[in-house]
Write a structure and sequence with these properties.
Elements: H1 3-13, E1 17-22, H2 26-38, H3 40-43, E2 45-51, H4 56-71, E3 80-82, H5 85-89, E4 96-99, H6 106-115, E5 119-122, H7 130-142, E6 148-149, H8 157-168, E7 174-182, H9 196-199, H10 202-218, E8 222-230, H11 263-266, H12 269-275, E9 298-305, E10 310-316, E11 326-332, E12 336-340, E13 345-350, E14 355-361, H13 374-386, H14 395-413, E15 419-420
The protein binds nicotinamide-adenine-dinucleotide (NAD).
Length: about 425
């Protein structure tokens, strides 16, 4: 077959993927949208529709993705703007629906999207409540329409490498896991994440990544959990200011929006996008000490799996910035591994300790891009899935990850009581 004919044949088989994005904020713009723009020619993928409740945030998103497209030498997009997710879902020019709205708005878009029969990408966490999580999963199952979810670590080079290593048996049988996450993430108290009604809790936002990792590695299902935590730094103050922008305190948790010197030069699309929000809860600079937050700033959580594996999360959102702020440690019967996310490194000990400190450097070539290169790979996976490939992580995985976090939050609310997952609602096909 001649080269020319082969190219024509290839084009016929692979039609352009037309993407509609619901929720054009930080994740929709800086991660997914930009990566689609940068790879639009090689993946044959374009953005044809945006949906946002706040119209100005669509124009800011469009300017940003088109700037990324232009830098990559790719053509700009001219998507249709919608305010109602159903209008985007029903648009004949959309094949793949990307949902990156705030967590409490996931179900209202995801359920009709799954029912439309189109391909669906949903960002994690699946939902803010167990009720919504189960409803999404059950729709996915009843419609036989598996979606793909955005558990970033599943697309990050060192985590993939670690999974291969553990599966190969070099540390023997996996027995224990620990994710240590001492994160400089005070922004959870400064944005919409600060209430469970919108986010399901910051622990759901970040911790669902971790429970998904545990499930990916464990090869079983979590049976019970106990946990302690709450708020011990971001404690309400009666005289707390409303926003950083209107506060002159010397405060370590000030957002950059309050720094006049840097305002014009440094602000990216995300800050400009947030600034157009009029609803105070959706601003980016709510004071961390202001009343109204009902999320946790720290937790220690312990899971027991039905195959004997145990797994723990050690978590805070007031940690200092540090290269070892997020690590995964796994102990097996013959060895142990520690993955340090920000270094892109795996420290491996095998053979009962005879082989010490073998450090595997496994940064991807795109480590400097968002989520250490994971979003670039994620968009490649989304394109493969949209063309009929399988989903590496679907709604059942998403439901299970959030169910495990909501179980831990219940334990914390109950003063550390053990929660048995068999006592919590579950999807009918579990
Ligand atoms: N996979 C990851 O690593 C990762 C990283 C960041 C965020 N996320 C997830 O992505 C989602 C969005 O987070 P974000 O940081 O981009 O938030 P954001 O506030 O920056 O963006 C959300 C956007 O959705 C819009 N919006 C609000 N209500 C809407 C509705 N009902 N329908 C449509 N649009 C609506 C907002 O105006 C905003 O533009 C969350 O579920 C979050 O947990 C995932």
């Amino acid at each position: 077959m001649g080269v020319e004919f082969a190219c024509i044949f290839k084009r016929r088989l692979m039609s352009t993927i037309r993407v509609g994005i619901i929720g054009t904020g930080s994740r929709g713009i800086t991660c997914i949208g930009r990566q689609i723009a940068e790879q639009s020619v090689e993946l044959d993928i374009v953005i044809t529709a945006f949906c946002n409740r706040t119209e100005s945030r669509m124009q800011i998103a469009l300017d940003d993705v088109n700037e990324a497209a232009s830098k990559a030498g790719n053509a700009p997009f001219s998507p249709t703007f919608y305010s109602d997710p159903n209008d985007l879902i029903n648009d004949d020019n959309v094949d793949l629906i990307v949902i990156t709205s705030p967590t409490a708005a996931h179900a209202e878009a995801t359920i009709p999207a799954l029912k439309s029969g189109k391909k669906v990408y949903l960002d994690k966490p699946i939902a803010h409540t167990l009720e919504d999580s189960i409803a999404i999963r059950e729709t996915e199952a009843s419609e036989s329409n598996p979606m793909i979810m955005g558990f970033t670590r599943r697309y990050e080079e060192p985590w993939i490498k670690l999974h291969e290593l553990v599966e190969s048996g070099v540390i023997g049988d996996l027995k224990m896991m620990l994710i240590r996450a001492v994160l400089p993430y005070s922004f959870y108290f400064q944005t919409w994440h600060r209430t469970r009604a919108v986010s399901g809790g910051a622990l759901n936002d970040k911790g669902s990544h971790y429970t998904d990792v545990f499930n990916w590695f464990a090869g079983g299902r979590a049976e019970k959990v106990n946990a302690f935590g709450g708020r011990n730094v971001f404690i309400e103050e009666d005289d707390a200011p409303e926003f950083c922008a209107t506060c002159d305190r010397d405060c370590a948790y000030r957002t950059e929006t309050a720094m006049p010197d840097t305002q014009d030069q440094m602000k990216g699309a995300v800050d400009r996008s947030y600034e157009t929000e009029t609803d105070p809860l959706k601003r980016k600079d709510n004071c961390v000490y202001k009343s109204g937050a009902d999320i946790f700033d720290h937790a220690t959580i312990h899971y027991q799996y039905n195959n004997g594996v145990v797994a723990s999360i050690f978590y805070s959102v007031y940690g200092p910035q540090a290269e070892d702020e997020e690590t995964l440690e796994i102990v097996g019967t013959k060895g142990r591994v520690i993955l340090t996310r920000l270094r892109g490194e795996i420290d491996l000990i095998t053979d009962y300790g005879e082989k010490r400190h073998e450090v595997i450097h496994c940064k991807s070539d795109n480590f400097e891009s968002s989520h250490f290169g994971a979003d670039r790979k994620l968009v490649q996976e989304i394109a493969a899935y949209a063309r009929g490939g399988g989903s590496p992580v679907n709604g059942w995985d998403g439901m299970e990850a959030t169910r495990m976090i909501l179980g831990a939050m219940k334990s914390i609310d109950d003063g550390g009581e053990t929660v048995h997952f068999s006592d919590l609602p579950d999807a009918s096909d579990s």
